[in-house]
Amino acid sequence: MNFIGMDIHKQTTTAVAKDEQGNILNEARFDNSKENFKSFLFEFKQEETKILIESTCVWEYIYDMLEAEGYSIKLSNPFKTKAIACARIKTDSVDASTLADLLRANLVAESYIPSREIRNLRDIARQRSSLVKERTRIKNKINAIIMRHGIKIPFATLCENALKWILEEINEISIKTILTTYIKLLEQYNYEISFIDEKIKDISYRQEQTKLLMTIPGIGSIRALQLMSEIADINRFENSQKLCSYAGLTPSIKQSGNSLKFGRMVKQSSKTLKYVLVEAGWNVVRTKESNQFKEFYKKLLKKKCKQKAICAVARKLCCAVYAILKNKQEFMFL
């Protein structure tokens, strides 16, 4: 069996191939292209070769490329690959050699690789989140300019009528020119977000998992797709506690001997999933109808701050999401 470690960068890759005894069979540094990867792997048969790559910003297309060639590939979690992170001598060649040794010794801390379909859904959901953040940034720019010049508009938010009022009532050329630019950008963001919302809605109503998640009060097509794409395969989590830990909704624990201390929420987690669950939690507790999540939130507010209370609601919601996806049943209050 051949074991290949690849230290991947944005433009180049350093690869080291070893046999079962740890002898180096080949070592090369090349630009990231399909031809160069095929050239390096030409002498290694697919059924006799295992490849390990690190999770970097460009791992996806390289993984898809190697998988299409029929090779067995694993993705290393860089946060847990301490043999590389703590090395005193750290070069691309040494890193690739270490990856090959870890693979050879079966000591790889693997990262989960979702299917291409799930990765595409993640890209769509995350693109929407990115557009919403940019739209908020533009709105803050407009509000800042209006505030700085002492302009008061007769609207609570930057709705369509408010933007129309700004264009018609503000006459100072310098201010109006700047605001017009930002308003055009804001309108473009609104159009793009509306377009992607329609796509997400269409996808959500065709997926069984998202339709089940939409039975939870306060969760619509957008939140459902975000949850489904971030969680991916629910069977990779043994229980709801594992999913909550993955979402960063469990406290850190420090235990030594008879000492046991609970700290803040774990930081090494899926920040996107945590954000979606917290936002979904706000949706649930703000519904007009009374529900168990809302009553639980009100109860916690008597002794906790809003941030801690909503995180507790998000954790309870995460457990409900796990049960729904695991049992393939619609949500119901007990």
Describe the model.
The protein is α/β, with parallel strands linked by helices and 334 residues long. It folds into 3 domains: 103 residues, 2-Layer Sandwich (Nucleotidyltransferase, domain 5); 89 residues; 92 residues, no CATH class. 54% of the residues lie in helices and 14% in strands. It is built from 13 helices and 7 strands. The strands form 2 sheets. Strands 3-2-1-4-5 form a 5-stranded mixed beta sheet. Strands 6-7 form a two-stranded antiparallel ribbon. α9 packs antiparallel against α11. The protein is globular, with a radius of gyration of 25 Å. The N and C termini lie far apart (54 Å). The model has no long low-confidence stretch (mean pLDDT 89).
Distance between the termini: 54 Å
**Corresponding CATH superfamily of the largest domain:** YqgF/RNase H-like domain
Name of the top-level CATH class of the largest domain: Alpha Beta
Q: What is the spatial order of strands in the main beta sheet?
A: 3-2-1-4-5
**Share of helical residues:** 40-55%
DSSP helical segment count: 13
E-strand count = 7
Class based on secondary structure composition and strand pairing: alpha/beta
Largest sheet: 5 strands, mixed
What's the architecture of the largest domain in CATH terms?
A: 2-Layer Sandwich
Strand content: 5-15%
Could you name the ranges where pLDDT drops below 50 across 5 or more consecutive residues? none
Radius of gyration: 25 Å
Overall pLDDT level = 89
Estimate the global geometry from the Cα principal axes.
globular
> What is the number of domains?
3
Q: Can you write the helix and strand succession as a string?
A: EEEHEHEHHHHHHHHEEHHH
CATH topology of the largest domain: Nucleotidyltransferase, domain 5
